[in-house]
From TrEMBL:
Lineage: Bacteria, Bacillati, Bacillota, Bacilli, Bacillales
Superkingdom as given in the UniProt entry: Bacteria
Gene name of the record: tal
Enzyme category, top tier: transferase
Organism per entry: Alteribacillus iranensis
Record protein name field: Probable transaldolase
Active site annotation, chain numbering: K84 (schiff-base intermediate with substrate)
Length: 213
């Protein structure tokens, strides 16, 4: 499983990229709004840090025609832009067009395995099931990863599964076990993944033994 970072914050993207673990970035309108910057300028800045990995940029239109115009515009910013499209009938039409034009897509706000299958059949490069938001309403988000993974394997579907709306380290470990190709993770959770109390204790002990030699 690969790691993407789920943010539009440049410092965090730079930090994760410096760790050598980063294969891509996902943004969404809420994350971009939080930064208070021009969307396209920010995408240029992000793609100057992450030059090869996929950088997802979401369309705002709700009609296919608008999504297609917006998506083409976003895709022209850099070759590694992936157009993020919501899981709707209009979104599927847009994905079909993007797929014919070899523009990569990430179908977002996926909450069921059939939605993921539809997105894949429309030609999506990635599907993003949202774990945390399903957990929030009393469903098991991780079970959705298992279901999609099973269906894609059974039908030899190449669309990649991005575990999204990741809230804690267990989401990451379980998503990897259940067959997600990618987890897109906020910086806070990436930092939590690095930490283990026994690692900290071990370092402390090694250093104090070294000082007392
Ligand atoms: C994924 O691409 C989304 O940007 C993201 O994971 C949403 O997560 P949230 O539910 O924490 O907002």
């Amino acid at each position: 499983m690969k790691f993407f970072i789920d943010t539009a914050n440049l410092e965090q993207i730079q930090e994760a990229n410096d760790l050598g673990i980063l294969s891509g970035v996902t943004t969404n309108p809420s994350l971009v709004a939080k930064e208070g910057v021009d969307f396209k300028d920010r995408l240029r800045e992000i793609t100057s840090i992450v030059r090869e990995g996929s950088v997802s940029a979401e369309v705002i239109s709700t009609e296919a025609e608008g999504m297609i115009t917006e998506g083409r515009d976003l895709a022209a910013i850099a070759p590694n832009i992936t157009v993020k499209v919501p899981m709707t009938l209009e979104g599927l039409k847009a994905v079909k067009t993007f797929s014919e034009e070899n523009i990569r897509t990430n179908v977002t706000l996926v909450f069921s395995s059939v939605q993921a299958l539809l997105a894949a059949r429309a030609g999506a490069t990635y599907v993003s099931p949202f774990l945390g938001r399903l957990d929030d309403i009393g469903h098991n988000g991780l079970d959705l990863i298992s279901e999609i993974s099973e269906i894609f394997f059974e039908h030899a579907i190449e669309t990649e599964i991005i575990a999204a709306s990741v809230r804690h380290p267990l989401h990451v470990a379980e998503a990897a076990k259940r067959g997600a190709h990618i987890a897109t993770i906020p910086m806070k959770v990436i930092s939590q993944l690095v930490k283990h109390p026994l690692t900290d204790q071990g370092i402390e002990k090694f250093l104090s033994d070294w000082e007392n030699r």
